[in-house]
Structures
1.
Amino acid sequence: MLDELRQTIASKEARLAVIGLGYVGLPVACAFARIGFNVLGVEVARQRVDTINAGNSPITGMEPGLQELVAEVVASGKLRATWDYEELGDRDVILICVETPVDEHDLPNYEALRSALEALGTVMKAGALVIIESTVAPGTTRDVVLPLLEASSGKRLNQGFYLGNCPERVMPGKLLANIRNVSRVIGGMTPETAQTMQVLYRHIVSAELDLTDCITAELVKTVENTYRDVQIAFANEMALICEKVGGDVWKVRELVNKSPGRMMLMPGAGVGGHCIPKDPWLLAYSVRTSDIDLRMIPAARSVNKSMPVHMVELLEAALKSEGKQLYGSQILVLGYTYLEDSDDIRNSPSQDVVKILEDRAAIVTIYDPYVASYKGSLLEKASGCEAVVVMVRHKEYRALDLKSLASVMKTPLMIDGRAVFREEEACKAGMSYWGLGKSGEAV
Ligand SMILES: NC(=O)c1ccc[n+]([C@@H]2O[C@H](COP(=O)([O-])OP(=O)(O)OC[C@H]3O[C@@H](n4cnc5c(N)ncnc54)[C@H](O)[C@@H]3O)[C@@H](O)[C@H]2O)c1
């Protein structure tokens, strides 16, 4: 049965489905549809289904090529979206791309994954190949996905269906390019399943495909994101040290990275998005019942989670230096997404900053060109403000005329959490500049 499936995948006759049409699922569905596969997208958010079927991308940040590609593959009939799981009954390969967040206790919340698998199992055709692209805790494909699919379908693994795990490695802003150019780890429940998956992904990925088992694929994905979180936490802690001793972390980083083998990342106002803040917890979850005492993962998370708090501390110190206080001050927050030039606001550090400021009775105004409720005129929003807090590195901010900004503010104070502006240019424009990682002895 698997040999036959492999042939229909090779000839692009296999009928594909993608469950969950978000940042991961939509570009993947489009990538397969573009090269001729018939792709059905299953999505619970009905508005998203309507938007896609009208030929539009619901992702509104800078996403090169995606809008055009959605229009193209919907018009050609190669991609169609639906909310109706019944339509999955004739699909040969099903990719699962639903969200996998953690809950308030940092434990995996697999509600979306479970409900997708339960609904899929009741209609899944014999011999289908199911691939988990969502990021999951190591062991999840074996211990959660497999039993759920067997129970809901009444079929047995490697007899009635096949199962694999191929974690996605995209970044918003480069979704289509990443799918094509970034290597992938392909985990199969058997080597033959991994080989079949390889035939599938070879159609859309030009980079290396590394074949392995599911546990390794799950480990690689969660380890690579945990690595990033730990590295960012290191940079953030160095920023705090530089502030205290009167250094400039940006300069220090530049010089450190001239030393062989050093690749210090950039510090910043916090870590957000759907992945980096939760994937370390998914990794940690996999050893929850063992006696291993994890120290680095929680420490890194704690450092990174504290950065929005630190931004408010910097703001307070800056205000104090002008004889002002946070209470009742009007503050402009620049950027509400977690990433530059993206519309993704999930877990954005700005949300934490805004909450802290509001709890402290500051009057908060937000400007973000990618978030519908925070668009408008930056200068109008800045008018009468005591300070501007830069949280995101949107390209548009770089073009900002700082002189005009300073002229409309009540107190021209800037707290820059992403090194968007240079201290000299801000000062030249008449602003007092406080940069993360370079505020000397002030805090
Ligand atoms: N966003 C990224 O950059 C990125 C990168 C790599 C991996 N991932 C991983 O990929 C997965 C998806 O992330 P995302 O950013 O695309 O999430 P997302 O929230 O943008 O997309 C998930 C989509 O699934 C839909 N959905 C939820 N339950 C469903 C169900 N039962 N049936 C059908 N549709 C359902 C949601 O409505 C949503 O549109 C996560 O596990 C994430 O960790 C994300």
2.
Amino acid sequence: MRGMRKPQAARTETIGMEGEKHAMAIELPELPYPKDALAPHISAETIDFHYGAHHATYVKNLNNLVRDTEFAGASLEDIICKAKGGIFNNAAQIWNHTFYWNSLSPDGGGEPTGAAKTAIDQAYGSFAKFKEDFSGKAATLFGSGWCWLIKNPDGSLSIEQTQNAGNPITEGKKPLLTCDVWEHAYYIDYRNARPKYIEAFWNLVNWSFLASNLGSK
Ligand SMILES: [Fe+2]
């Protein structure tokens, strides 16, 4: 099924020609669908900038920042949980964007079924209430950041905002779904109308990805 790839870092070590070990670079993961596949809700032009420029730049920046530091060769998750400042910001933005691309699917949208429906109904009573609450938190996040559906350590679900590059894994919470509400996610298609972008988001939500995250550790 398309859209199920999860964030990962290329981080294995390799032996160079001279025999010394080199930490392999963090790589930009492939998009799980063609760049025009989310249109008309999210245009190919937005993907060109958002994935091809912003996401790619975070990867380039991180590789430059971690060179010759304790984080060279570390996993993204390790970097996110241990680093501060620019290294954290770029690592978390790489992870968050990969998770975001997988939270969307050209085959997504509509109402959840199966495990995703069961979990949402248990937590929010109905999909309509979940959609209202999530949309509200996404719309009211001040400035740049992310709106998440997360699973808490006790198994309960919450909708949470994080500012800038913030990622719930730093607090031991498991992301299930995210919506990027940085302006660069919607400005080309919707100018400053974030609520219109959030409405479009619901046409693309990858419920299978949410269900797979619910079931994984
Ligand atoms: Fe973004």
3.
Amino acid sequence: MTEKNKKASSGDRAIGMDASITRRDFLGSALLASGASALNGLNPAQILATAGAFSAADAQADWTGYGGVGEYSRSNGNAFAVMEVGHKMRDGAYEPLPPDTIETGETYDCVIVGGGISGLAAALFFQRKAGKDKTCLILENHPIFGGEAKQNEFEVDGKRLVAHQGSAIYLVPYPYSFIARFYDSIGLHTPKLTYQRWSGTGPEMTLGRTPYDSAGLSHGQYGFWFGAEFGQDPGLWLVDPVGKKMEGAPLSPAARRELLRWFSGAAADESKFDPPKYEGDEISRKLDAISLEQHMMERYGLSRETIRTFLSPVEGGGSGLGPDALSAFSEYAADLLHPWDDGSGEVVQMFPGGNTTIARLMVKALLPGSIDGPEGVEGVSRGAVNFAALDARGSTARVRLSSTAVSVRHDGDPAKASALSIAYAKDGKVFSVKARSAVMAGGSWTAKHIIKDLPEAQRSAYAQFYRSPCMMANVAVRNWRFLQKMGITGCRWFRGIGNYFDVRRQAVCGGVEPTITPDAPIVLTLKVLYSYPGYSTEEQGHRGRGEMITTPFREYERRIRQQFTDMFRAAGFRAEQDIAGIVLNRWGHAYLTPQPGFFFGSNGQRAPRDVLRAAPFGRIAFANTDLAGAMDHRYSILEAHRAVGQLLDQVVSREA
Ligand SMILES: Cc1cc2nc3c(=O)[nH]c(=O)nc-3n(C[C@H](O)[C@H](O)[C@H](O)COP(=O)(O)OP(=O)(O)OC[C@H]3O[C@@H](n4cnc5c(N)ncnc54)[C@H](O)[C@@H]3O)c2cc1C
């Protein structure tokens, strides 16, 4: 062992890299970790080849890492097998279909590609509107349904902890709105939830209910961290940056001024801006013509440098990239769904595992026997999934998991064909079913590869959908006394892995403890985004995906442990004992990142989403939240509703 290696190993030990709960015990990790930089630009299959001396299972484990416990433990983010099939599909491996493709002999009235919120909603609408004698099949490529609405579970010191993998919050809707009635129909009767109460020793601390609240910021209980990149060694904490008016931050006076206005809310208060009232009004079209970065500069008086150095990519309107890459309208698109703000300050809600609960409620509504126990939030939070009941022979609605649709094609001329042939890959084999209609709810990045006879108009529309990656890292800690000691409940940092986290009071359901204390374990969620300001929207997505999928679990684990150690060691935090588990959720195509012109078109061309939403193509209709241009589960539901309505109005006939 060289001196350098010895040093690295003792450094690894100091941050707990040999601690047990996240251990993978595989042979290839050291090679993959040390060779990470050489692997850039390769896809996972190529990584496996590079690691040829080791088994595929070893390398796969090194990529996937620890998955937590429970029903979601084999489905953290995009599962490795899903990605492999996805890349084969992109590279044309299923064109033509292999000669040993197995015809299942099944014919469905509707096959739905994708078992996220949109696909599940499509199945429910189809079942409810077409009638229970009509059949539908969902093909979902992950080992469990939910799409980006899934959760991780940890077992820490005898306590069960739950955290979201992706889709987190929902907003209380107007009581008689379409979304409210939909929630009610799946068993979410009371959208306002009850949250944990404080039971810690010492004065009660300010806690939000979601990872996005920064509740401590306006109460002096928030910290900004400046590390080595800001010339600070061992690093500098500015606790209560707003209250202290950024005094002591190692920044230029101009940057301090701008950040203070931004984080104190003054920039928003001062701005004389009239936001869009409805989609397509004059202001929304003006916003869509410029980048969000330009809009932030004009509306809030921020400099480009401040935006790119301190605010990007977090303040990107929830679209995965920094404001330079996005349409300014993306910041306002979701607001136009009009949540019900009754003044109680409770409009934003979150289940312990985020919108996982909404997905589970939908599955229970579709197939009552598929989750044990009664309907309703408590029932689906505690009940176990009955996997066999999801795809039971004879059932009119079926959910087929670990099944990637690889080919959807009309049987003949799309204008006249009476059926579609749909092929999917499962367990290394390819199967084929027939369908009288289909909803593509899996997302733009796969739909464009799967539909083999897609006309040029739709094909070029999909080519203008760019998606960017995101890695959600859930870090279970045995307690958060180190934060209490520092007097903070959330923090932000401007370099390194992730950018922020917040301690959150969880909704009390599904066995969550009714109180929260710094002495008990919690999960801290880091959202890791990949942005490269200055590059095109498409290029930023490609680069980020390349970086995310070629970095082994162990390397990310090391960076997270080091980040926490650098920030919290002085407050008594010890990564080797305090981190109880890390789960990475890698979403290769997490967010649609709408570029200027995405929403309402540019250069006299129709908006790409309108081309796909306007009408079905033959027997195929299009759904998924990305068709709205905003990543929000309400849009997933609304797009599914439109797509199924189009099929029933125009495609599915009585004798079909
Ligand atoms: C990190 C993150 C945080 C988010 N936070 C929120 C939030 O707080 N609130 C909110 O409302 N929204 C949030 N979203 C947006 C989220 O996308 C939506 O809420 C919603 O979950 C999307 O559902 P969907 O069905 O439209 O798409 P998806 O969830 O992407 O579901 C599509 C499913 O289809 C599968 N699929 C794709 N291709 C195929 C194929 N060929 N064959 C079979 N299956 C296929 C996919 O793998 C996936 O499982 C967040 C998204 C991310 C990434």
4.
Amino acid sequence: MNRRDFISGAALGAVAVAGVSKVAMAALPEPAIMTSPDTAPPRMPDTGRPYNPVVTLNGWTAPWRMNDGVKEFHLVAEPVEREIAPGMVARLWGYNGQSPGPTIEVVEGDRVRLFVTNRLPEQTSIHWHGQRLPNGMDGVAGLNQKAIPVGKTFVYEFVARRPGTFMYHPHADEMVQMAMGMMGFWVTHPRQKHEWIDDVERDFCLLLNAYDIDPGSVVPKINTMLDFNLWTFNSRAFPGIDSLNVRLGDRVRIRVGNLTMTNHPIHLHGHEFAVTGTDGGPTPPGSRWQEVTADIAVGQMRQVEFIADAEGDWAFHCHKSHHTMNPMGHDVPTMIGVDHRGLVGRIQELVPDYMLMGERGMADMKDMQMMLPEETLAMMAGFGPHGPIGMGGMFTMLKVRRDQKPGDYSDPGWYQQPAGTQAYEWAGAMPEPQRFAAERLHQGEVPDLNRPALEMQVRKPIPGAHNH
Ligand SMILES: [Cu+2]
């Protein structure tokens, strides 16, 4: 008996004896495992309805198999090693070899079957965030189904009913499992031309996630509620996040989902965008307005769109300044204006490695070569063509180029500013500052930078007056 005969024989036997469903008797689709954190090129659909695929930054789209008109995926929940940025590999939990898991791409009206195998050390489940589906497929362990025990595979089946941007994540011990990186993106493409959905040349996905990983450690702290120290796009921190590389004139869509514990005002330089889709689907064109920052609350998805009509390397980042920092951004006292002269040498007698930080701001830390524990990212990192960028975390760039080929997502390198279009150092004469004279008029004195810094006015209590 060859292998095929054996399998079909076993299947027939199962039908004859147990009368189980066709699903149970079909062999599981082989799970695809991704070992690279690189951005995979768009996966063109080889079966099923056609669509224009998305690109997941530093991620990939899951393959499927068609089984009797049903799109079948196999997700494996498991411990993974995820490179957060070159030099730092974290031990997370994820799906199919990475965190986030693979992006699921289907078409409106598709019948979808998802096999979920649990290779974690504890039970799990998957909630299909934002989908319309039968109640028993919604994935809240205890409420809609039993949790998936360790070592078991559960099957979810539903029709992808509306086009849009969705996410998936566990709804079983989710504080732990999401802190460990279990989440993924889901895109349902429109079945036909939709009056509220434009065709785009570039369609990017990024999931906002956050971790608390102590310097020198590789496993996230799962009980952290607020004080995360790694802010990431698709579990990557700048300079580990690929840039969004597009051709001049492209219509670009960026889909963002937020599975951190706080909101993120996502900001794009050099262009205005409109929010063309939310958790609930595409927005009516009459409701849209142009902006440069979209705040994305916890649990929300947003799609923004714009025409990339300005060449250059444009920053794209969360506007909370601590979210564009890597670890060590916390617990550093504010030292601006504090005079340390003479102090460093005395401390170094006691603590030889002592370094002075921050008395003129913290920009110096961008190029500071400190001894960091292994597996720790520099607080501000990434070099541009004009020096250190001084960013980490949720930061990357939109690179718009005239000669970027359609469908080419490779990094075009740094933008060369045309002559005469870059900020430059003033080398001419300095006029006498006028503002000191103005201040003298208003305040009756000139600010004297050499006088003692502290001057206190003490108002004595008035005897007999009791204000309590
Ligand atoms: Cu943020």
